[in-house]
Amino acid sequence: MDGTLAQYLVKDLIVKDRVIRNRMVLAPMAGLGHIAFRRLVSEFGGFGLLFTGMCNAKAIPHENPCTSPVFKWQEEELGYLVCQIFGSDPESMAAAAVRIEKEGFFGVDLNFGCSVAAICKKGYGAALLKNPELSSKIVKAVREAVSIPVFVKFRTGWENNPLSAVNMAVRFEEAGADALTFHPRIAPDRRTRPPQWDMIRLVQEAVSIPVFGNGNLFEEKDGIRMIRQTSCQGLSIGRMAVARPWLFSQWTNRFVPGNDIFHQTALRFSYLLPDHFDEDFSVRLFKKYAPYFCANFKFGHQLLKKLVRAQTLVDIRNNLASIFESNPETLSRPNINLFL
Q1: Crossing angle (nearest 10°) for helices 300-308 and 279-294
Q2: Within this chain, do residues 125 and 150 fall inside the same structural domain, yes or no?
Q3: In this structure, are 187 and 43 located in the same domain?
Q4: What angle do CA 97, 98, 100 make, to 5 degrees?
Q5: Active site residue 114
Q6: Are residues 245 and 270 in the same domain?
Q7: For residues 143 and 186, is the Cβ–Cβ distance under 8 A?
Q8: Three-state SS for 20?
Q9: How many domains is the chain partitioned into structurally?
């Protein structure tokens, strides 16, 4: 890769028949990629696409965006927003994609990567990697139902077999996927071992569609190393984007965060949440964000204990003010023990 990371990431990338002006995207994350968090990221900018949290495909055809906590968006973000769906039935996944296209989303993302037990037990997420035939049928059904780009996020599989991951990638492309997001860990291994980036290279070499690399992208040097090592065509940022929502702008726009960036960002988030959710749910969502935020600090576990004691948004803001009175020491790389 010639030049800086920023120069590479702001090169145009074609996905199906659409152009993305930036190759750095937000990874789909359950419970974290909701409308308030996406607004926070959007205020900093610097990304190519944002992804929603996980939406149940069976619910989407009849879902009400006014009441749904996940199938909810702002009109202005639809041009760069991809809706992620999960399910195991080709017909319901296709029907959900039809609704997503009608609403004006940039694309639809199929979740074959979530390894949470409650999801896999129902045959969703990474469980579908055990059934290549069915997962391919789902991709094909969605591709035939819509004209918008179809993304697939998946893992290595259930065994540490590079050939299996490559075969799945080829299957997905043949079934009609327009881009892949690949997380090179096996499903049973949540985050106990580092991702095997060399598998991203094998997947990228096996297909002609764009592959977004995902896994342990914490600092700019990680992004440079992943692109050089794997030749992936884009970067998908998950947990680190929650910890530092300005990361996209920092890597692509040369944004320089100020000394008060952590306090002001967390505070801003506490005001964005009640624009879309009631008080109790807003507090719950802030507490889900809090471990990632606290991972930025040397004594993050202690700060987290203080934040999660809050019962209201006012409590959260007061606790933030108290925390930053002592000017907590930050870390260059986050404490991944707090990355749940």
Answers
A1: 170
A2: yes
A3: yes
A4: 60
A5: yes
A6: no
A7: no
A8: strand
A9: 2
Task: Judge whether residue 264 has pLDDT over 70.
Answer: yes
Which of the following is catalytic: 83, 114, 120, 232? 114
Between the alpha carbon of residue 36 and those of residues 67, 270, 329, the distances in Å are 14, 9, 27
CATH code of residue 143: 3.20.20.70
Mean pLDDT of the chain: 93
Write out pLDDT tens, residues 54-72: 999 999 999 999 999 999 9
Six token digits for residue 279: 């008080």
Residue-wise pLDDT for 154-194, tens only, equals: 988 778 888 889 999 999 999 999 999 999 988 766 666 78
Is residue 23 located within the same domain as residue 107?
A: yes
What is the reported pLDDT for 190? Answer: 60
Q: Which among 252, 269, 299 is the end of a domain?
A: 252
pLDDT beyond 70 at 279: yes
State how far the Cα of 305 lies from the Cα of 315, in Å rounded to an integer: 13
Query: Cα separations (Å) of 176 from 63, 191, 331?
Result: 26, 30, 42
Task: Specify the 3-state DSSP secondary structure of 56.
Answer: strand
Please report the pLDDT score of residue 191 as a whole number: 64
- The residue written with tokens 């933030």 in the block is 320
Neighbours of 208 (CB within 10 A): 6
Determine the Cα–Cα distance for residues 195 and 183; give it in Å rounded to an integer: 7
Q: pLDDT tens digits, residue range 195-252?
A: 899 999 999 999 999 999 999 999 999 999 999 999 999 999 999 999 999 999 999 9
Token output for 288: 């889900």
* 47-86 residues labelled b (16+ CB within 10 A) or e (exposed): bbbbbbbbbbbbbbeebeeeeeebbbbeeebeebbbbbbb
The residue among 191, 222, 252 that closes a domain is 252
Q: Do 21 and 49 fall within a single domain?
A: yes
Q: In the predicted model, is pLDDT for residue 276 greater than 90? A: yes
Residue 295: is its pLDDT beyond 50? yes
